[in-house]
Amino acid sequence: MAAFESLSNRLQNVFSKLRGKGKVTEDDLNEAMREVRLALLEADVNFKVVKDFIAKVKEKALGLDVSKSFTPGMVVIDIVNKELTELMGGTQSKLAKANKPPTVIMMAGLQGAGKTTTSGKLAKLLQKGNHKPLLVACDIYRPAAIKQLQVLGEQINAPVFALGDQTSPVEIARQSLQFAKDNNNDYVIIDTAGRLHIDEALMEELKNIHQIVKPDEVLLVVDAMTGQDAVNVAQSFHEQLVLTGVVLTKLDGDTRGGAALSVKAVTGCPIKFAAMGEKIDSLEPFHPERMASRILGMGDMLSLIEKAQAGIDADQAKEMERKMRTAEFTFDDFLEQMAQVRKLGPLDQIMDMLPGMNKMKGVKDMKIDEKQIGRVEAIVRSMTKDEKQKPELLNHSRRKRVAAGSGTTIVEVNRLIKQFDDMKKMMKQFSSMMGPKGPKGGKKGLKGMLGKNMKFPF
């Protein structure tokens, strides 16, 4: 996501410092918030929006007494994530639907923001939901605007209502409604004229169209690459027209993305859609919580944190961590650990939720076989209490007995014991590397250790 790349990188750096800390002091928090503030301002987020945002995060973090939490750094990140989500509207804002069809959507915006293209993309999106949208060409000023809409209509097989450039836009809009009713079109998307800047005449025309068609949605199409200007444009339009939502275009561009974060806070209008590319189907409904996750480079870490908080006992987790560090980890612990992890859901889904997993070589191609996990559990359950505590007792004849008892082969038993040994060694190495300041040798050390030889016992 190019729009937030540099913001994303900066925020992730701030949080990686916090993540490694066992305790987060007020000074740590202030330092982190100063960095977050700078990162947001650099991403072109509105100054007042940034000020309010930082104040809210600080208040929540201090109010929560972060220092007592099991993972203080994660709690701060969680707060930032929630506030970032709120900033962009909290929850997904869906398209309005008229009680009696057709639902009328009026598209507004300055010239060059991508109004006509977005109208086509929106029609395509509605078609996917089995609707029959009608596109209406009300931009009679820009050369070839009508033609452009007709070409888009042909491309997606949607009807375009046009009366040429000699009829007034208000009249075109009026007649389009009757056409939609006659032809069973349940959505009418009106592509209005834009100007290079906001002027009286443009606003007057839009108000007149508004009066005639009484739209259910007035969507402002905003070019995310214009940064702060985009927010000012949104505000001016909102004052005159009362917008119901915003569509952000060119979010895939090399832009600082601040408009996406400011527009809801400044105008109160939710972002309903975002266009991530040129293609006709590149318009997506806007999900604030997913966007926040992407910006923070968290994958869908939040669902994972919630699942973990619900399913994993913190004291048990601490004890497990101690055992791993001191290499006291036994086969019993291994079973317990597997049971805890399995509570979180299918393993490949969990892998998908982990940030950075998609960047790690080898992990992408790793397929996890749930049946194999069952076999691993059967092998461990066929061991005696002593054998689970001291795997070194498992000589050949004992391994044979375990294989017979678990309905597996001696090869599988041998493989599991070897992997268990490797895992213990790795944990020891890992805990010595994970000093109080996070991984020594940074990511490089970590990657070297996880390397190509990392094999899971399932």
- Summarize model confidence as the mean pLDDT: 80
Number of domains as seen in the coordinates? 3
**Name of the CATH first level of the largest domain:** Alpha Beta
H/E order of the elements?
A: HHHHEHEHEHEHEHEHEEHHHHHHHHHEEH
CATH superfamily of the largest domain: P-loop containing nucleotide triphosphate hydrolases
Uncertain stretches of 5 or more adjacent residues: 358-366, 436-443, 445-458
Strand fraction band?
A: 5-15%
How helix-rich are the residues, as a percent range? 55-70%
Radius of gyration: 29 Å
Class by alpha and beta content: alpha/beta
CATH hierarchy: architecture of the largest domain: 3-Layer(aba) Sandwich
Give the count of helical stretches. 20
Largest sheet: 8 strands, mixed
- In spatial order, strands of the major sheet run 3-2-4-1-5-6-7-8
**Number of DSSP strand runs:** 10
Task: Detail the topology: elements first, then pairings.
Elements (H helix, E strand, L loop, with lengths): L4 H15 L6 H17 L4 H17 L8 H16 L15 E6 L6 H14 L4 E5 L7 H12 L3 E2 L7 H14 L4 E5 L8 H14 L3 E7 L4 H14 L3 E5 L8 H10 L3 E5 L7 E3 L2 H8 L5 H11 L2 H12 L5 H13 L3 H7 L16 H12 L3 H5 L6 H11 L3 H24 E2 L2 E2 L2 H9 L8
Parallel strand pairs: 1-4, 1-5, 2-3, 2-4, 5-6, 6-7
Antiparallel strand pairs: 7-8, 9-10
Provide structural commentary:
The chain is α/β, with parallel strands linked by helices and 458 residues long. The chain folds into three domains: 2-87, Four Helix Bundle (Hemerythrin (Met), subunit A) (Up-down Bundle), CATH 1.20.120.140; 103-286, P-loop containing nucleotide triphosphate hydrolases (Rossmann fold), CATH 3.40.50.300; 301-450, Orthogonal Bundle (434 Repressor (Amino-terminal Domain)). It has 20 helices and ten strands. It has helices at 5-19, 26-42, 47-63, 72-87, 115-128, 145-156, 169-182, 200-213, 228-241, 258-267, 288-295, 301-311, 314-325, 331-343, 347-353, 370-381, 385-389, 396-406, 410-433, 442-450; strands at residues 103-108, 133-137, 160-161, 187-191, 217-223, 245-249, 271-275, 283-285, 434-435, 438-439. Helix 3 (47-63) runs antiparallel to helix 4 (72-87), helix 7 runs parallel beside helix 8 and helix 16 packs across helix 18 (396-406). The model is unreliable at 358-366, 436-443 and 445-458 (pLDDT under 50).
